[in-house]
Write a structure and sequence with these properties.
single chain; 498 residues; alpha+beta; Neuraminidase
């Protein structure tokens, strides 16, 4: 037993050492990348001082490689952009733009405000649209000593007619549809008739009992002006179904279900209930401000009946004892008040509780928690609900979240994980809940997890203490000296959610 335990401990020590080494390499890589980003930012600051278009006849460009040389689509000109040069000790990167006139055999240096950052080994292509456009994608930036590299993934266009640079955001939304044949293992692109959803991400799909496909919600961003985007939370619904009598042909139809519809949101989760109804849970509604993004997280429940084309709010009965108390109290009055307050609200609308969470960095985040009102279920209540033997405990429900996992088995809905945000901190959940879809009484906690105890490491935090503990346990103390050297390094940067 002793020898076996020693071997296992030694094996765990090796694993911990490998994990620490990977962590240190990752930290050094982040540090090097940040150094390069700072250098790139410095050069961009210098470029920002250029506010006018300046065209200067010049001698041929200095030596360079990995630049792009493109042909003007309408003129007898060549366009040279970017490149690099190494003099044996130092690496130079360029974002200069040169025009070579083929007929006159002359060079012109063109300085245009807001150019792309310096780079080499990028991709370039010219198209004739709009009087000619030069498109630049990606490329590489190297440190002066040539030992560190930063790789771009940005996209730029030079409008040749107006001589203006424009950065094009690197996101593209699609609304195409593909099918996969389980017999031939091949993909096919569909071309449905009718008007379908606009391009988007994060939408949810579910199958109807008739074999159609329902598309709901999603998120997309549109450019409203230069360098400014506006996000849209979609709440529209579409049905994709095969055309009658035309095999292999599909048609889009926009549908407008009745009933109590979910509020606009993204990041919600869906599952199919035993009665072929689509079940929707949670999500987040982002409120975009000038330089911030605030999210209202939900924990409410909705059902969509494809046959009736109707949404239903998933109201829970609540614990038995709670129902008995509410039945004795004046519950009709507040429900009537709710009806008057909101003309669109259902008589059994969920209760919204707004609370503020203060993160460690002092950021105040508003979280909206949607609580189903106990005793408001439209399902008939039996006389047995008042029996003392069945009196339940306190009200239990999952905390508001987005991107949770849902599954239905034996008429029970299982909810696992997800996330919510508190300031700059993203809290990832690992709890597990169960809800009986027949009884619709209350959630049952199967795995409980306290997010307050979850470890959150800021990029500026020292790794000395944690690594030292691992070394003591794994018997690999010699690596802790390297950890002490790394502990003085600080990583910067902020996290943003798109």
């Amino acid at each position: 037993m002793g020898k076996k335990g020693k071997k296992e401990k030694k094996g765990r020590g090796a694993e911990k050492t490998a994990a620490k080494m990977e962590k240190k390499v990752s930290k050094r890589s982040r540090k090097e990348e940040e150094d390069l980003e700072a250098l790139i930012a410095h050069f961009q600051t210098l470029d920002a001082k250029k506010t006018q278009i300046v065209e200067t006849p010049c001698s041929p460009p200095s030596p360079r490689l990995n630049a792009s040389l493109s042909v003007h689509p309408e003129k007898d000109e060549l366009i040279l952009f970017g490149g690099e040069y190494f003099n044996g000790q130092k690496t130079f990167l360029y974002n200069e733009l040169y025009i070579y006139n083929i007929r006159k055999d002359t060079w012109t240096k063109v300085e245009i405000p807001n150019p792309p950052p310096r780079r080499c080994a990028h991709q370039a292509v010219v198209v004739p649209q709009g009087g000619g456009q030069l498109w630049i994608f990606g490329g590489e930036f190297a440190s002066p000593d040539g030992e560190q590299f930063y790789h771009y993934k940005d996209l730029w266009v030079l409008h040749l007619a107006t001589k203006t640079w424009e950065q094009v955001r690197d996101y593209i939304y699609y609304n195409d549809v593909y099918t996969f044949d389980l017999d031939t293992f091949t993909w096919s692109k569909l071309s449905p008739s009718g008007t379908g959803p606009t391009p988007r991400s994060g939408c949810q799909m579910s199958v109807t009992p008739q074999g159609g496909i329902v598309i709901y919600g999603g998120y997309s961003k549109q450019r409203v002006k230069k360098d400014v985007d506006k996000g849209t939370q979609h709440s529209d619904m579409f049905l994709l179904k095969s055309e009658e009598g035309r095999e292999g042909r599909w048609v889009w139809t926009r549908i407008n279900p009745s009933g109590t519809k979910p509020t606009p949101r993204s990041g919600f989760s869906i599952a199919v209930a035993p009665n072929h109804q689509t079940l929707l849970f949670g999500g987040v509604c982002d409120e975009e401000k000038e330089e911030s993004l605030e999210g209202d997280f939900f924990n409410d429940l909705y059902f969509y009946d494809a046959i009736k084309n109707r949404w239903f709010a998933g109201q829970l009965k609540g614990p038995k004892s709670e129902k008995r108390k509410r039945r004795r109290g004046p519950k009709a009055e507040p429900e009537g008040a709710d009806k008057q307050d909101s003309g669109e609200a259902c008589a059994h609308a969920p209760l919204e509780v707004v609370r503020e969470v203060v993160a460690e960095d002092g950021t105040v985040v508003t979280i909206k928690q949607v609580i189903a009102t106990p005793g408001s279920s439209t399902q008939p209540q039996s006389d047995e609900d008042d029996s003392p033997e069945e009196a339940g405990g306190p009200w239990v429900e999952p905390r508001p979240r987005s991107n949770a996992m849902l599954a239905v088995k034996h008429s029970r809905l299982y909810l696992y994980g997800g996330m919510f945000e508190a300031g700059d901190r993203q809290v990832t959940l690992s709890d597990l809940y169960c809800l009986d879809l027949h009884k619709m009484d209350q959630w049952t906690v199967l795995v409980e997890a306290d997010p307050e105890t979850q470890e959150w490491l800021e990029e500026t935090d020292s790794e000395e203490d944690s690594d030292a503990g691992e070394g003591a346990e794994g018997g690999e103390d010699e690596d802790d000296q390297d950890d002490d050297e790394d502990s003085s390094e600080e990583d910067g940067g902020e996290r943003s959610r798109i």
